[in-house]
Amino acid sequence: NAALAHYSPSNGSSRTLSAREMYLFDTGGQYLDGTTDITRTVHWGEPTPLQKEAYTRVLMGNIDLSRLVFPSNTAGRTVESFARRALWDVGLNYGHGTGHGIGNFLSVHEWPVGFQSNNVPLEAGMFTSIEPGYYQDGEFGIRIEDVALVVQAQTESGEKPFLTFEVVSLVPYDRNLIDLSLLSPEQIGYLNSYYERIRAHVGPELRRQRLEDAYAWLQESTEP
């Protein structure tokens, strides 16, 4: 069902999950201290070569946009293709937006932030999702969505303000679906740094709540 990017379950289309296929879950909630919108795709069995490559290229796009440094007052549309490039390289694409603004106790899809041509330029302090994907009709769907804060970047020149993204979603990606041979050293370095942040922020909270099974899963899922 995840082959449909905006699928809603119904009695007629629901079916039992299987470890022999991909599973996409788009999750979120509104809390006193913030709003979440996080999508992860997993496979509990043996993914096909196409599934693994497609997932890895979606992840590459997510990383490439998340670590991008760009001039202040840049339109989201100008940088959106960084999330698609790894897919475009092999003739793949996705048919939805790359991200949307996220409000606190307002709209989860909040105007006017995002990566479309009619969105406002990106400025420090804005929250947006970053969510490339790939969908094969009738077979499977992949999406990796994080919430990111636009922040000021530290550049070597130190001249005009530049911006970048700080990903605030702290959820590991599925190691079973990553083809490391496709990733650049910079992308692997980004992943390892991200996993260190997850361990530092989420690990102690799981231990505080005595969720030892979840803590063990987190440690395994965030190995370098």
List keywords for this structure.
224 residues, alpha+beta, Creatine Amidinohydrolase, globular
What does this structure look like?
This protein is of the alpha+beta class and 224 residues long. It folds into two domains: 22-169, Creatine Amidinohydrolase (Alpha-Beta Complex), CATH 3.90.230; 180-223. Helices cover 27% and strands 25% of the residues. Strands 3-10-9-6 form a four-stranded antiparallel sheet. It is globular, with a radius of gyration of 18 Å. This is XPP2 aminopeptidase. Residues 1-150 form the Peptidase M24 domain. It holds the Pfam family Peptidase_M24. Keywords: Aminopeptidase, Hydrolase, Protease. Belongs to the peptidase M24B family.
The number of helical runs is: 5
Tell me, rounded to a whole number, the average pLDDT.
Answer: 94
**Count of beta strands:** 10
Helix content: 25-40%
CATH class of the largest domain: Alpha Beta
Radius of gyration: 18 Å
Do you know the CATH topology of the largest domain? Answer: Creatine Amidinohydrolase
The stretches of 5 or more residues where confidence is low (pLDDT under 50) are none
**Helix-strand string:** EEHEHHEEEEEEEHH
How many separate domains?
A: 2
Biggest sheet features? 4 strands, antiparallel
Strand order of the largest sheet: 3-10-9-6
Corresponding CATH superfamily of the largest domain: Creatinase/methionine aminopeptidase superfamily
> Which word captures the global form?
globular
Broad structural category: alpha+beta
Protein name: XPP2 aminopeptidase
Pfam family, one: Peptidase_M24
Domain Peptidase M24 C-terminal: 161-224
Keywords: Aminopeptidase, Hydrolase, Protease
